[in-house]
Amino acid sequence: MKASSRRDFLKGLGVAAAGGLITSGLSLDAEGHSRPSRVATGPMGRRVARVAADPSDIPPPIHRDWPITHDITLRVEEVVAEIEPGVTFNFMTYNGQIPGPLIRVRQGDVVNLTLENPSTNHLPHNVDFHAVYGPGGGAAHTLVAPGQSKTIRFRCLYPGAFVYHCAVPDLDYHISSGMFGMILVEPPEGLPPVDREFYLGQHELYTDKQPGEPGHHNFDFEKLFEEKPTYVLFNGAKYGLTADRYGAMKARVGETVRIFLAVGGPNVTSNFHPIGNVLSYAWREGAILSNPDRNAQTVAVPPGSCGIFHMRLPVPGPVKLVDHALTRVARKGLLAVLEVEGPEQPDIYYPSPA
């Protein structure tokens, strides 16, 4: 991409109106690829125990029939954490977690959104909400250098589940490193009732080592350009939401669950599939006013989009949530487990018939 066309591209994203700030620290190679001059080649930022968001730590369903105003702050945290035991990476996060916090509002609500970039960070950041009518989804007016904060106000006019993400020039680098999340805009009548809700975020990492190779992994731009990820992950951790890492999600026989899936990407489409179950209802693209698919086995969710899925849990045992591009599961880390507890149901499934 030539420099002039690159500027036009960035202007179209709504991130080029900050007095040149967003281009500081960037250079173009002979092919016109942008390469930040400040990409870390070792651990950079404070070390944290985990970046994987707790999938059950989300706001409850909304039960009101009037709009309100929300004051919400997203704080950018550049941290070092493990992808898997013994393997660290420089993550970029909203509020220290991947995916960023699930923001839950009602259609017609107003959001006062503040983006903070602490002075201890090294890079500029912003946020683009797919739920916002406005330049760059708010990205044009939330660009903050280290030590800055900015506030925008927006009204949520259309319901659904929508991605938000960083949208600086090297947005693919920032999103891959963890800067994405979901804003859920509930319709006035609310969502169909379920017993439990969970929140997952899928993204891929491009590193300069092989999966499982111990030590610190740096970001690899050559793999990014070729779209050949080292890891494909739920919530920033290899097999993070399993009993062997941070713990599986929990539910009971007879319950219904809703799963919100945000796919940050930046490049890989999720092929979402529950092993040992089926998606009883699936709202593609997070389009909650659309008629859902029924009993869908595998649903494609492209990068920069979301899915809302309901499942019934008639039998006990693990339900493995995967991307059915299965090399990503077997080799690159993409697996979450929903452990369903309760009595056996031999009329539905019996593992040892006489």
Please describe the structure with a list of short key phrases separated by commas or semicolons.
2 domains; six-stranded mixed beta sheet; mainly beta; Immunoglobulin-like; 40% strand; 23 strands; 354 residues; disordered N terminus
3D architecture notes:
The protein folds into 2 domains: 3-186, Cupredoxins -  blue copper proteins (Immunoglobulin-like, Sandwich), CATH 2.60.40; 196-341, Sandwich (Immunoglobulin-like). The strands form 5 sheets. Strands 3, 4, 5, 7, 9 and 13 form a 6-stranded mixed β-sheet that branches. A 6-stranded mixed β-sheet has the order 14-12-16-21-18-19. A 5-stranded mixed β-sheet has the order 15-23-22-17-20, with no helix packed on it. With 354 residues, the protein is mainly beta. Helix content is 8%, strand content 40%. A hairpin with a 5-residue loop joins strand 1 and strand 2. 45% of the residues are buried.
Task: Give the end-to-end Cα distance, rounded to a whole number of Å.
Answer: 66 Å
**Strand tally, please?**
23
Q: What is the CATH topology of the largest domain?
A: Immunoglobulin-like
Strand content: 35-45%
Count of runs of 4 or more consecutive helical residues: 4
Helicity level: under 10%
Query: Largest sheet, if any?
Result: 6 strands, mixed
CATH architecture of the largest domain: Sandwich
Structural class: mainly beta
- Give the overall silhouette: globular
H and E string: HEEEEEEEEEEHEEEHEEEEEEEEEHE
Measured on Cα atoms, how large is the radius of gyration?
20 Å
